[in-house]
Amino acid sequence: MPLAPFGMASALLMSVVEAGVLRGVVMADHLFTKILVPVDFSPCSEEAFRLALSFAKSYQAEVLLLHVVDTKSLDALNRLGLAPATEAAKQKKQLHHFARLNARQLLARDDAKGVTIRRLLADGCPFEEIARTARVEGVDLVVMGSYGGAIGGVDKIFFGSTAEKVVRTAGCPVLTVPLPTKRAKVKTGKSL
Q1: Domains along the sequence of the chain with CATH
Q2: Any idea of the CA torsion for 66, 72, 77, 78, to the nearest 10 degrees?
């Protein structure tokens, strides 16, 4: 099946997927059978989910929808006294509940109908859990937002983004998806 309907995403995929999987032509209708989509429920990860659904429909692939509760950040807040350590279990329970509610909203979207989707919830360091899940589940492709809810910060400067770390450690192709930019409308009949 040609990749043309995906436009820029297919060009990105062609540049990302190497090691003999594509080599410029699609080798099989079932190129991807299992697609991992890590989400933090930011607009960027929701765009990645939308694109993953398109790929899943084209290749009849299963989608694994993963949310990682960042326990390192939670522990840091507790150590700084910004969140009481005695409430850690309650905080984690609330974060799990929040993740389940948001995942249900994604699954209820019209474009998710007809796609086999499995929800996964993990605790830990997001990039480590994403890479581990990709390896354990035998994922063919990871589709994720190029940035998430926590943009910038000192640890991004020193350690890189979650997406960058996943690209280096996942062991399979990773497609990073930016937020779509609104195209500027050009008025017809007027010179620029």
Answers
A1: 33-177 (3.40.50.620)
A2: 110
Contact (CB, 8 A) for 62 and 120:
no
The per-residue pLDDT for 149 is: 57
Q: Within 10 Å of residue 8's Cβ, how many Cβ atoms?
A: 10
Reduce the DSSP state of residue 60 to 3 states and report it.
Answer: coil
Residues lower than pLDDT 50 in the chain: 1-27, 151-159, 183-187, 190-192
The pLDDT tens digits for 74-110 are 777 677 766 666 677 788 888 899 999 999 999 999 9
Which residues in the chain belong to E strands, given as ranges?
34-38, 62-70, 117-124, 141-145, 174-177
The DSSP output letter for 190 is -
- Around Cβ 120, how many Cβ atoms within 10 Å? 16
Residue 64: Cβ within 10 Å count: 21
**DSSP result, 27-78:** --TTS-SEEEEE--SSHHHHHHHHHHHHHHHHHT-EEEEEEEEEHHHHHHHH
Residue of 88, 108, 172, 113 lying closest to 137 (CA atoms): 172
Under DSSP, is residue 118 helix (H, G, I), strand (E, B) or coil?
strand
